[in-house]
């Protein structure tokens, strides 16, 4: 049989069960010609006669029609079951959840958050990649991620951004740095010393923008493309750095320590938020994660 639709098969099955085009049309709330056309199409496509028409007495199935009725009924049942299964996928909080978070805070917050989330939704399988802001946004557009955790920096118009927490910038210095004894620092004070710059897209622009109103631009002594390298250079005395995510332990990977000092003055804090692609309906797992993040430790993590 070629090119038969489920609707045509359903019309045929009901007509065969009721042995009447008229009664089938009434039960399915369609016109009699629609039922007749479906039957005629199936007979033409199959090359066999499915019904014997009795004038004023309805229909009776042929041998071929009886055989097809059984198979069609089974197929329609399977189709209905498949739709119910598809609907359940949209209701059950289970299955894969692909996310991405910015490099700086992904390793600090996401493993603990995912573990806590799984205590409430154990059938979800979360996966969180790390990436730069532009890569996360591109992943949302391409459908690789349902959720992204990004900063409020150059958020495109097609991205929905829901703020979660604010991270003010702070200075990181070695214990023997000339400024290490201060309880608070200003951008003007920092501009007199060598700087270790976290050289990531958007991040570098943000940190350098803090010096726009300073009397001197920063003396960039080193550029690093990993947070671990920044911490290591700072702890080993190569200069101060500006960061904004809580550092956790004040240690570099080589075991040397550094100190963090808050900044005075009007310095713009960065806001971390949940990013989704506008117009996309999130899976139940992604919706559950969104609600979870709104009430998680991340939403209370402002430094």
Automatic annotation (TrEMBL):
Any one GO molecular function term: DNA binding
GO cellular component, one term: protein-DNA complex
Annotated PROSITE patterns: HTH_LYSR
Keywords on record: DNA-binding, Transcription, Transcription regulation
A Pfam family the protein falls into: HTH_1
Ranges of residues in domain HTH lysR-type: 1-62
Keyword DNA-binding part of the UniProt annotation: yes
Family statement drawn from the similarity comment of this UniProt entry: Belongs to the LysR transcriptional regulatory family.
Name under which the protein is recorded: LysR family transcriptional regulator
Organism: Salinicola corii
Lineage of origin: Bacteria, Pseudomonadati, Pseudomonadota, Gammaproteobacteria, Oceanospirillales
């Amino acid at each position: 049989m070629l090119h038969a639709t489920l609707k045509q098969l359903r019309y045929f099955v009901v007509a065969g069960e009721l042995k009447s085009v008229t009664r089938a049309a009434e039960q399915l709330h369609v016109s009699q010609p629609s039922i007749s056309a479906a039957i005629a199409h199936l007979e033409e496509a199959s090359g066999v006669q499915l019904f014997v028409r009795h004038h004023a007495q309805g229909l009776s199935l042929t041998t071929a029609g009886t055989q097809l009725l059984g198979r069609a009924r089974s197929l329609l049942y399977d189709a209905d079951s498949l739709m119910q299964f598809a609907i359940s996928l949209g209701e059950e909080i289970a299955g894969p959840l692909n996310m991405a978070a910015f490099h700086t805070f992904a390793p600090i917050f996401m493993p603990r958050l995912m573990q806590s989330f799984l205590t409430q939704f154990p059938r979800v399988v979360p996966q969180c990649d790390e990436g730069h802001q532009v890569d996360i946004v591109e992943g949302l557009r391409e459908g690789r991620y349902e959720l992204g955790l990004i900063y409020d920096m150059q958020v495109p118009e097609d991205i929905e951004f829901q703020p979660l927490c604010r991270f003010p910038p702070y200075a990181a210095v070695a214990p023997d740095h000339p400024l290490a004894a201060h309880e608070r620092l200003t951008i003007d004070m920092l501009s007199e010393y060598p700087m270790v710059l976290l050289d990531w897209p958007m991040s570098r622009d943000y940190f350098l923008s803090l010096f726009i109103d300073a009397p001197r631009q920063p003396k960039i002594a080193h550029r690093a493309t990993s947070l671990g390298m920044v911490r290591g250079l700072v702890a080993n005395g190569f200069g101060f750095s500006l960061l904004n995510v809580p550092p956790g332990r004040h240690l570099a990977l080589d075991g040397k320590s550094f100190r963090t000092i808050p900044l005075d003055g009007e310095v713009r804090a960065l806001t971390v938020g949940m990013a989704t692609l506008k117009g996309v309906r999130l899976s139940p797992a992604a919706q559950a994660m969104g609600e979870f993040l709104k009430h998680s430790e991340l939403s209370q993590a402002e430094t």
